[in-house]
Amino acid sequence: MLRHPVQSLFLGTVPMGLATIVNMVVFVCVPAWGIWATRLAWALWWIDVVLAASTCLYLPFVVMYVHDTQLSTITAAWLLPIVSTIVAAASGGIVAAVLPNPQYALWTLIVSYALWGMGVPLATVVLVMYFHRLTVHKLPPREVIVSVFLPLGPLGQGGFAIQQLGKVARDVFPKTDSLIPGAGDTLYSMGFIVALILWGYGLVWLFFALASISKSKFPFNMGWWGFTFPLGVMTVSTTQMAKELPSAFFKVLGSMFTVVVVLLWLVVSAGTIKGVVTRQIFFAPCAADYEKQYNARKTRENLEKGTDGNGTESLKP
Hints:
Blueprint: H1 13-33, H2 35-65, H3 80-96, H4 102-137, H5 152-176, H6 183-214, H7 228-244, H8 248-278, H9 285-305
Helix pairs in contact: 1-2, 1-3, 2-3, 3-4, 3-5, 4-5, 5-6, 5-7, 6-7, 7-8
């Protein structure tokens, strides 16, 4: 799978899924079960950090070293291994907010800022390449047209992450005497400004995505799940800004985004269940490639042994 030019990129969704579990441990289990749930969330988060950093560093290198990549083959799926570090950074801000030890919270914040620095700048580089690909080679095929929403992922999650980290830094830095007095307040203010800039950038890609799907008729497939995460994190960033300002505009817009995400989730879930029942949704191109390679290898071995694969003798070339 690591050698497949497309399927390998989806390994980045593994740490992203784990980060969601970490967040729900904090939101649900910590208030109900106390300190041991906090330790569980922190331990799971460190595992997520290792997985996210590994995918962000190794998978792009595989693209450079193994694959023969052309500009026309670039897709927004290149963002998936990179976004995993941004998601881990956001989860780090959530976990740090409930850690009772300020020093542990500080370590978590520092690592989270580093993860954010690994992900967001690299994601912007990929977005530039992807924009160039769209302008030169037009829109992606209709089967993967939903991928045009993926650029919202690093921008929306990056905006939420930097806000959450600044919010926690404002509380943790004074307790640990980190940097200079007021450093936490500075990070908090800068976090909101950076989030607002990323949010504006996200509006550009949201327009491109909506315009792209309006020009295409595309069948339901697993790619439709690409609707939920990008729009979801864009919604989270919007609602977080509504809390920080506070702003009636962002509150209303965040509520509208939330309704859209929920409706899309219901539609995608219904389509997925239907596809599972009819067995029409399960298709893995990498598995098909492996089957072809396996059959070719067995044929070659049979020819070398002098049989036709059924145990009967055949003429050797």
